[in-house]
Design goal:
The protein is α/β, with parallel strands linked by helices. It folds into two domains: 254 residues, Aldehyde Dehydrogenase, Chain A, domain 1 (3-Layer(aba) Sandwich); 193 residues, Aldehyde Dehydrogenase, Chain A, domain 2 (3-Layer(aba) Sandwich). Helix content is 40%, strand content 21%. The chain has 15 helices and 22 strands. α2 runs antiparallel to α4, α2 crosses α6 and α5 crosses α15. The chain is globular.
Length: 464
């Protein structure tokens, strides 16, 4: 049994047993058997399971939020918001399950095919393997579980080793909601067991959220199965000289950069601000950053920042900041002291010429911590070039009143999503979500994940 400890206090929150390689084959077989039951459920039955799961999450809202906060080190207010989103995700999936249909299509389009008529429906590709990260132990799990159940697929879910308890609780609620036994199997697992599942052709689709290094490795060993990869990024925001409200932009970007200690893949990591508003923006941004509640008490209702998931992660973020300062590539604007897993908001000014350096980790890699870089630009094209000077491309933001700039940014920025006049971390759970380049492939978001988990099946009839 592995002990799960709170990043806030180090206290044991609960225990979870990790599945070993010897058990992996049997679990895959159980999922295959469950798929046979899931695929024949009616649309109504699948929708009801999802609707009831949402209702049970609402019933147990306080319990789920407290557990999530304790195991993930997520401030309680943010944990409650995640439970709200989980409820919305299952509710939307219940509705979307009713719209996974097909169409009648004309086949009498040539002289040779005049006698034929056709139609198709979308059917589940097979059992799904989901692997989820620590930072959203409910809602990122929901984005794998809900679409799988919606299309009639079984799913084995390997949660992050740091945060398995919320996913295990969710599995209990899904079963209580009426899902067939083993429709959802949540399995904390050793790496060898997870690798065995990824290689196992009985799973038709891998849905992975995590680092690009691990994601592309798993894709390389996944064999015939489809791979849906959401691999993170180092999101950039452009604050233009015609931004409608510089103070609002500063406040939203500070919350995005430092909320949950920056442990969000679309958190704002790089900011490019026009020279005409750079001083006003920077002053407002630093003030907003200092005003963010940063507490060690997991019960503090006002806390926004909180700890990193473990000491190793905090040490890495601090080392990357030190690297930028030591090589004289950055000027400190706000330095958050580090104490174990806790690190305060940190802001560095980086010259535009250095903002694309691949040897400077604070701008070139996914930081996943409470630090941000600010660079000043004068020419719009330079800002676009700087944002694109990254191997990642998940989401970006632009603050402007110019429709022309919005259109140009939308056309040229190499990202999966562009947010206008709000932070990079905006995500509505029904929208297509994913990235380009090293940020992955495929899209999550209910109907888009459902499309990934299904395939068209054709019926052709010859008229007699």
């Amino acid at each position: 049994m592995a002990s799960i400890r709170s990043p806030f206090t180090g206290e044991v929150v609960g225990e979870a047993r990790e599945v070993g390689l010897a058990e992996a084959d049997g679990i895959a077989a159980r999922s295959v058997a469950a798929f046979a039951k899931m695929r024949v459920l009616s649309t109504y039955q699948r929708s009801e399971i999802l609707r009831k799961t949402a209702a049970l999450l609402a019933r147990d809202h306080a319990k789920v939020a407290t557990l999530l906060s304790r195991e993930a080190g997520k401030p309680l207010s943010l944990a409650r918001g995640e439970v709200d989103r989980g409820i919305q995700t299952f509710t939307a999936a219940a509705e979307e399950s009713k719209r996974t249909g097909g169409e009648v299509m004309p086949l009498d389009v040539t002289a040779a095919s005049e006698a034929y008529e056709g139609s198709f429906v979308r059917v589940p590709v097979g059992p799904v393997l989901g692997i989820s990260p620590f930072n959203f132990p409910l809602n990122l799990v929901a984005h794998k579980v809900a679409p799988a159940l919606a299309v009639g697929a079984s799913i084995v879910l390997k949660p992050a080793p740091q945060t398995p308890l919320t996913a295990l609780l969710l599995a209990e609620l899904v079963l209580e909601a009426g899902a067939p036994e083993d429709a959802l199997i949540v399995c904390p697992a050793e790496v060898a067991a997870a690798d065995a599942w990824v290689r196992d052709d009985r799973f038709a689709l891998l849905s992975f959220t995590g680092s690009d290094k691990v994601g592309f490795h798993l894709k390389s060993i996944a064999g015939k199965k489809k791979a849906l990869l959401e691999l993170g990024g180092n999101a950039a925001a452009i604050v233009c000289e015609d931004a409608p409200d510089v103070a609002f932009a500063a406040k939203r970007l500070a919350a995005s950069a430092f909320g949950y200690a920056g442990q969000v893949c679309i958190k704002t990591q790089r900011i490019f601000v026009h020279a005409k508003v750079a001083d006003a923006f920077t002053e407002a941004f630093l003030a907003a950053s200092r005003a963010l509640a940063f507490a060690r008490d997991e019960r503090d209702e006002t806390n926004i920042v909180g700890p990193l998931i473990d000491d190793k992660s905090a040490a890495r973020v601090a080392a990357w900041v030190d690297e930028a300062l030591t090589c004289n590539a950055a000027e400190p604007l706000l330095m958050g002291a580090r104490d174990g897993r806790f690190m305060g908001p940190t802001a560095l000014r980086v010259a535009l010429a250095d903002a694309g350096r691949t040897d400077l980790k604070v701008v070139s890699e996914e930081l996943f911590g409470p630090a941000v870089t600010i660079s000043v630009y004068s020419a719009w094209n330079d800002a676009i070039t700087a944002v694109n000077a990254s191997r990642y491309g998940l989401q970006a933001a632009v603050f402007t009143d110019s429709l022309a700039k919005v259109r140009d940014a939308y056309a040229r920025l190499q990202v999966g999503g562009l947010i206008v006049n709000d932070a990079t971390s905006v995500r509505v759970d029904v929208m297509p979500y994913g990235g380009v380049k090293d940020s992955g492939s495929g899209r999550e978001g209910l109907r888009f994940a459902m499309a990934e988990m299904t395939e068209p099946k054709m019926l052709v009839t010859r008229r007699t």
